[in-house]
Amino acid sequence: MDKHDVLPIGEIVQRSGFAASALRFYESEGLIEAMRSGGGQRRYQRSVLRRLAFIRAASNVGLTLEEIKDELSRLPSNRTPTKSDWHRISQHWRGRLDEQIVALERLKTGLESCIGCGCLSLQRCAFSNPGDWVASSDSAPGAGLLPDSLRKPHPTRR
Amino acid sequence: MDKHDVLPIGEIVQRSGFAASALRFYESEGLIEAMRSGGGQRRYQRSVLRRLAFIRAASNVGLTLEEIKDELSRLPSNRTPTKSDWHRISQHWRGRLDEQIVALERLKTGLESCIGCGCLSLQRCAFSNPGDWVASSDSAPGAGLLPDSLRKPHPTRR
DNA sequence: CCTTGAACTCAAGTTAACTTCAACTTGAAT
DNA sequence: ATTCAAGTTGAAGTTAACTTGAGTTCAAGG
C-alpha cells in the first residue's frame, strides 16, 4: 500500500475537473497540500479530492478563495468532516444563497413596478437609484438594491 | 435657455452618483457623450442623466458594459424611450434575473439534499460536481449548476 | 539508452470596470 | 488681477482567480 496511496497531478486533474494550473495555484495559496516525488513532482493524497470538491462547492455558492480558505481551516483539522460540521456549514451557505435570491427578487419587483411608470427618470425610480439616494430615505419603496455580494461574474472561469 | 441646458461634470456626479472617473470612462467607451466648453471641459446634456440611470439599472441586473452599450444603441436613436421600448427591455432583464434566481435555487436544493448524505464525496454529489460530470449524465438530479452569468462580485465597485 | 508525454518553476498576461496619479489648465468669484 | 476649487489628460494601478509561455526536467515504456 504505497503506489496507490498517492496520485500524480494528472490524476487529480481528471478526477477533480480542475486544471493543473489551478491546483498549483491553490497550493500556493495554502488551500491544498502536496507531497513531492524524488524528482520534485507533486504527489497528492486521496483526501485532496474531497477538499477540492469542497472548494468547488463553496465557490459555486459565491465564496472567495479567502473565505474558502478560512472555512477549510475551521473544519476540525484534517479529519473527514462529521455530519454536524457539514450541517453547520451548509446552514451558512444556505444563508448566502437566500440573501442573493432575495436581492434578485427585490430587483425584479422594482423592475416590474417600473414597467408601468416608464420612468428611469432618475427622480424616484427605486430600480435605478444610486446607493446614497436609497440610503437617504430609509423606508423607501425599493430600498436596498444589490448587496455587495451580487456583482458580475468573473470572466476567466470556464 | 443656454446656461442651464448643459451641466458640468460635477453636477452630473452629484445627480447620478457616478464618480467623475467613471463618467470619463463611460465616455471613452462610447456609452455617453459630452460637449466641450471653450476651454475643453465637459458639458453634459440633461439627457445623459437618463442614460446613466439606465446604465446603473442595467448594471444592477448584471449586464456587462458591452451589453449595456448594445442595448443603448438599440434604443431608437437618442429619443426618450417609449413605454414599449421600456417594456421590451424590462422583459429581457426579467429573464436574466429569473435565470439567476433559478440557478441559485437549484444550488440551494442541491445543498439541502446534501445535508442528509453528509457527502462531498465527489462520487455523486450534484452540488460539488464539476461541469463535465454534470454534463455527462444529462438528466442528472442536480444537473446544470451555476450558469456563466453567476460568478463573484467585482471588488472595485463602491 | 532513448524517446515522449507529463510535470516543474517563475514571471507575466488576462478580464472587467474603474480608480489613482502626476502634472497641468479652467473658470467663477472676489 | 488673483485665487483656488474644479476640470483635463494619459498612463499605470487595482482585484480575483487563474492561465499562458518559456525553458527545463522527470519517469515510464520499448
UniProtKB/TrEMBL annotation, chains A, B:
One of its GO terms (molecular function) is DNA-binding transcription factor activity. Residues 6-74 form the HTH merR-type domain. Keywords: 2Fe-2S, DNA-binding, Iron, Iron-sulfur, Metal-binding, Transcription, Transcription regulation. Residues 137-158 are annotated as: Disordered. GO terms for biological process: response to oxidative stress. The keyword Metal-binding applies. Pfam families: MerR (PF00376), MerR-DNA-bind (PF09278). InterPro entries: DNA-bd_dom_put_sf, MerR-type_HTH_dom, MerR_fam, Redox-sen_tscrpt-act_SoxR, Tscrpt_reg_MerR_DNA-bd. Transmembrane segments: none annotated. This is Redox-sensitive transcriptional activator SoxR.
